[in-house]
From TrEMBL:
It is found in: Cell inner membrane. It is a multi-pass membrane protein. It catalyses: Mg(2+)(out) + ATP + H2O = Mg(2+)(in) + ADP + phosphate + H(+); ATP + H2O = ADP + phosphate + H(+). Mediates magnesium influx to the cytosol. Its main location: membrane. The keyword Kinase does not apply. It is an enzyme of class 7 (translocase). This is Magnesium-transporting ATPase, P-type 1. The chain crosses the membrane at residues 72-105, 243-266, 278-300, 770-791, 803-825, 837-858, 870-889. Keywords: ATP-binding, Cell inner membrane, Cell membrane, Magnesium, Membrane, Nucleotide-binding, Phosphoprotein, Transmembrane, Transmembrane helix. Pfam families: Cation_ATPase (PF13246), Cation_ATPase_C (PF00689), Cation_ATPase_N (PF00690), E1-E2_ATPase (PF00122). Belongs to the cation transport ATPase (P-type) (TC 3.A.3) family. Type IIIB subfamily. Its EC number is 7.2.2.14.
Amino acid sequence: MAWAPDRSAARGGTGTTTGTTLEVLRALESGPRGLPEAEADARLARHGENVFPGRRPDPWPRRFARSLRDPFTAVLLSLGLVSAGLAAWGTACVIAVLVTVSCVLRATGEHRADRSAAALRELLATTATVRRRPAETEEPVTRELPVEQLVPGDLVLLAPGDLVPADLRLLRTTGLTVHEAALTGESAPVARSAPGDLCLQGGSVVSGSATGVVVATGADTVLSGAVPQERGRRLPGPFDRSVNGIAWTLVRCMLLVAPLVLLASALVRGRGMETLPFAVAVAVGLTPEMLPVVVTTALARGAALLARGGEVIVRRLPALHDLGAVDVLCVDKTGTLTQDRPVFACAVDAEGRDDPAVLHWAAVAALWTLHLAELPAPDALDEALLDADEERGGGADGVEGLVALPCGPGRRIASALVRVAGGEPGTLPDLLPDPVPGSLWGSLPGNVRPLQPLRPAGGAPAGRYVLVVKGAAEDVLERCTRVSDEGHARVISAADRTRLAARADALAGSGLRVLAVALAERPASTSPYAPEDERELTLVGFAGLQDALAPTAAEALAVLAGRGVTVKVVTGDHPGTAARACRELGLDPGEPLTAARIDAADDAELARLAARTTVFARCAPEHKARVVRALRTGGTTTGFLGDGVNDLAALHAADVGICPRDGVAVAREAADVVLASKDLTALDRAVVTGRRSTGHITAYLRITLSSNLGNVIAMLAAGLLLPFLPMLPAQVLVQNLCFDAAQLALAFDRPGAAAHLRPVVLRPRALFRFMTRFGLLNATADLATFGVLALSVHSLGAEEGQAAFHAGWFTENLLTQALVMLLLRAGRDAAERRAPLPVRLATAGLAVVGLLLPLSPLGPALGMTALPPLYYALMAVVLTLYGTALAAAHRKART
Ligand SMILES: Nc1ncnc2c1ncn2[C@@H]1O[C@H](COP(=O)(O)OP(=O)(O)OP(=O)(O)O)[C@@H](O)[C@H]1O
Ligand SMILES: [Mg+2]
C-alpha cells in the first residue's frame, strides 16, 4: 500500500465527542459533521458578521477630537483662547483658522489612510478552516472561510499559527497550547487539552491542533466585551520617539517665547500687556503646526504608493518611517532565504552508508504525525519524506500509528508511536531491545485509534510497539543511548557521539537540512504517552533534504547591503545549513552563534555578540526575540522578517516586524509590514519609500524650523529696537498660514537616488543643530532688511512709515521663505536638481503673495501700504546676498 490514499484521509475524519460536548453541539443546533451551508447563511444573516468591534473606523467627530489632542494644536488652541480673552479678535480668528485647517487636513488624511488600510485588510483577509456540508445530506467538506463569515455552530479546525477566530468550545484536541496574551496578559502558552475547554477569540495557537464549535462571534465574544483598545499597544518605535521628542522640545520653546517677549518689551520698551497678542503671535510663529498633517500625508502617500504596486502593505503608518530607518534586518532562513520546498536528498546510516530503512522510518513518523496531529497544512519536511518513500515504492503496510507528538516552536523533534504487526523482520531490524511483556495500552489519549487486541487467541504477539523519533540531530542524539551498527544496536560511546555529530555537521555543511532518525521499542503501557518518553533511543541514521534557495534572495540581499542595511539570519535550523545558505547567497556567515551560547550570555554580552554575528542558529522563538532585543539595545533600528509561529516573539520585539503574505495568520497579525509576495525585492521598494517619506518630513521640519526660528529672533530684536511692533499679530499669522500652505507641496519632492543609500532617521539633535545654524542666517537677512526698512520709516511720515515697514517685512519674509524652500529641500543633491512642479508652483505662489498682498486691497486691511520702488531694489540686494550665503552654507553642511 502506498502512502497517498491515506494522506488525504488525514484531514477529513470526524471528531468524537464526549457527553458534554455533544450537549454543546446540540444546544447550538450543530453536529460533528458541521452546519449545512444554507443554515450557515441563515445564521450569518441573523447574527451578523464576525468582526471585531474595535476594528470599525472611528466616527468623524471622534477623529476630529483626536486631532485636537496633538500637542501643537493644543498649544495653538490655548494661545487662541488667551487672545480671545484679551479681545484680540484678529489674532484669535487667525489662530482659529489655523487650528481648523490643520484639524481638517489631518482628519481627512487619516481617513484616507484608514480607508486604504481597510482595503488592504481585505487583501489580507484572515481565513479559518471550517467543516461544513454543501447540503443537508452531503458529506462534510473542510474548507477555508473568511473569518467574518463564521457563525455560531460552525466547526473550526485549529492548527499552529492560527488565530482563534471566534469563541470556541473544543470538541477534541491534540496537544493544543494557546497563547492568550491579548486576553490575559499571560505570556506563556496555556494548554487547552480537554474536550469541553473554551478557547477564546484573540488567542493564537502555538502548538497542537483541535476541532471546536463556534459558540460566539462578533460583538458577543469575550474579547469584544473586554477592552478592545488594549490590542496592539506596543513600545514606542523610533518614529514615535523622534516625533514626540521634537514636538515636546518645540512646545517648551513656544511656552518660553511668549513670556520672554512680554518681559523683554516691558523691560526695554516699558510696554505692558498690550504686547500680549504680539507675544502670542510670535510663539505661534515658531510652531510647525502643519507637522501632524505633513507626517500623516507623507506616510499615507508612501503607504498608498506601495499598496498600489500590490507588493507591500503597511499596517501601521509610522512603521514606514521605521522601515526606512532600519539598519539591521534579521530574517529567518526557511521560507525566506530558501523556498521551504525541501526535496529528499539522501538517507544514510550511522556509518554514512546509504540506508533505505532510515527513509522508511522517517516516512512512517511523518505519515502518522500527519494523520494523528490533524495539521491542516502538512509540514514541508514530512511531505518531502513521504514523497521520497512513495517514489521508492515504500509503504506502511502493517504499521499503525497510535500517538504522534509533532514538533513545534522550541521543540525540534517529532515522534510517532506505531504498532508494527507481526514484527515484520524485513523492515524492523534487530536493533530493538526485546519487548518487555507488559500490560495492555489501556488508556491512551482520546485521539488514538482503537487498538487491536495485543495478544490474539493464538498467543503469538500481534505486533510490537515502536517509537519513531526524527528531528534536529543534536536533539535526537542526546536522547539516544544506542546506535544501530549494521542492523544491531550497540551502546553509544563518547567517540561515537563525536563522530555522529560530525557526520550530521558534514551533511548540514553541504547545505542539506538534516533530520536524525531514531527508534525504540516500547512495552505496552497504561500511562499516557508524553515527551518524557522520548529517551533511550537507538539512532538509525540521518536523512538529508535539499531546500533550494529562493530565486531572488541573493539579489535582494545585495540590494539591501547597498542600502546600508546589514542582514542577519536568525533560524531554528542547523548552523551549518544556515552558513552554507548564506555563503551561496553571497553573505559572509562568519562564526554562527547557537542557542546554547545565547542562553549562556547575559544581556550586555549578548548585545556585544549579536552586533558582530551574522548567523544565529538553532534558535527557539525566545532566542529569536532575545537576539532582536539585544540588537536594539546595541542602538540599531532592527527589523525582523519571518513567517512562522516561531517568529512571533521576534516580530513583536523588533522595531519593525515584517511578514510575507503567506505567513501564518498570527505572524501577519503581529507584523507592521506585510509583503504581498515572497519576493524579497519588494522589501527594497518599501525601504526606499520609507526613506522618501522620512525625507519629506525632515525637509519640512528643517525648512519650517529654521525660518521660524529666524523670524522669532528677528522679531524679538526688532521689537526691542523699534518704537513700534515690527509686525502686527495678524500679519505674523497670515504670513505663517501662507508658508504652511506652501510647505504641503514638499510632499511631492523626489530626492535623488543618492538620498536613499543610508538608513534615514528623524534625529531631533541634528534637526535642532540645523535649525540653529540656518535660523541665525535667516535672522541676519531679516535684520539686514530691517536696516533697509528703517530708512523708509525715516523718509516717510511716522504713520505711513510704520505701514510701509510692515509691508516691507511681510514681503521680505515670504520671499526668504520661498528661497529657503527651494534651497533647503530634501536630499544631498537637492540644490543641483530642478524642483518638481508642485514645489515650483508653491514657491512662486509664496513670492507672488509676498509681493502683491501688501499692494492689494487686503494690504490696508492688514495694516500695510506700498513701499517706494527704491526699497524693492535694496531688498533684492539683501535677498541675493542671503540666497548666496544660504546655498554656500547648505553645501558646506552637506560635506
Ligand atoms: N517535521 C519535522 N520533523 C522533525 N523535525 C523537524 C520537523 N520540522 C522541523 N524540525 C526540526 O526543528 C528544527 C527547527 O525548526 P523551525 O521551524 O524552528 O525552524 P526552521 O524552519 O528550521 O528555520 P527558520 O527559523 O529559518 O524558519 C528544524 O531545523 C528541524 O531540525
Ligand atoms: Mg520559518
